[in-house]
Amino acid sequence: MESLWKLSYLLEPASLALIVTAVSVAYASASRALDHGKEMERNLDFSEASITLDRSQALMIPLASSCSLLLMFYLFSSVSHLVTAFTAGASVMALFFCLSPSIAYAKSQLNLMDPFVSRCCSKSFTRLQGLLLTFCISTVAVWLVTGHWLLNNVLGISICIAFVSHVRLPNIKICSLLLVCLFVYDVFWVFFSERFFGANVMVSVATQKASNPVHTVANKLSLPGLQLITKKIELPVKLVFPRNLLGGIVPGSTPGDYMMLGLGDMV
């Protein structure tokens, strides 16, 4: 009975929000992936816009992820600026990808004119797409300045949806192989890595914050408003919800406590 009582934390607002968000993201990722696949097939550009995994690639994903995890574990402080900058660029592209269908919907519903303004990487770029790209860049810029957990979640969700939409599993055998490999990867790094590396590698990487390059540059140039820029920032590789989501302090927690779920668990 006592063990069941310990599960009562699942009824906390933060827990419920995390569960609902994870389920919604899984559904949205699958739906967007189907729509994206149909769109690419119509445009005869399916092979260029997605990656279809074969058996060797499915086996390499856990190995590459393990190498990346160890790199982040040992050298995170040295490469955190680079990782943050790369993540910011990826977040802009992912957010643009996720919001792009809204452009087509707005044009069809409102009969909007959307003239081409330029071409980039052999693809046409319209005025509405330019406005959307500006919005995405602004959103990521605000995240870099404030480090707000809500923006972190928005960008993390965008990355998750974009990844699922562009990575294809051709059959159930490759899918099963990938899931088994990722299961072994997850179990090892969460439960057994401490025996080999002296610390829980997965938890250490997931909970450490990256140095904010915006703060570093502003500090070097002595720009005004430095105190408004967060020095350390959570990377959008997980969903985070404060334990005191609706105000007040949850028993046994502090104001800075967060519940989190890695994007890989949703993917």
From TrEMBL:
Key word Isomerase present: no
Entries under InterPro entries matching the protein: Peptidase_A22B_SPP, Preselin/SPP
GO annotation, cellular component aspect: cytoplasmic side of endoplasmic reticulum membrane; Golgi-associated vesicle membrane; lumenal side of endoplasmic reticulum membrane
Top-rank taxon, per record: Eukaryota
Compartment(s): Endomembrane system
Location, primary (coarse class): membrane
A biological process from GO: membrane protein proteolysis
Membrane-topology descriptor: Multi-pass membrane protein
Alphabetized GO MF terms: aspartic endopeptidase activity, intramembrane cleaving
Membrane spanning stretches: 14-34, 82-104, 125-144, 150-167, 174-192
Family recorded in the similarity comment: Belongs to the peptidase A22B family.
PANTHER family: SIGNAL PEPTIDE PEPTIDASE, SIGNAL PEPTIDE PEPTIDASE-LIKE 3
Name of the protein described by the UniProt record: Signal peptide peptidase-like 1
Lineage: Eukaryota, Viridiplantae, Streptophyta, Embryophyta, Tracheophyta
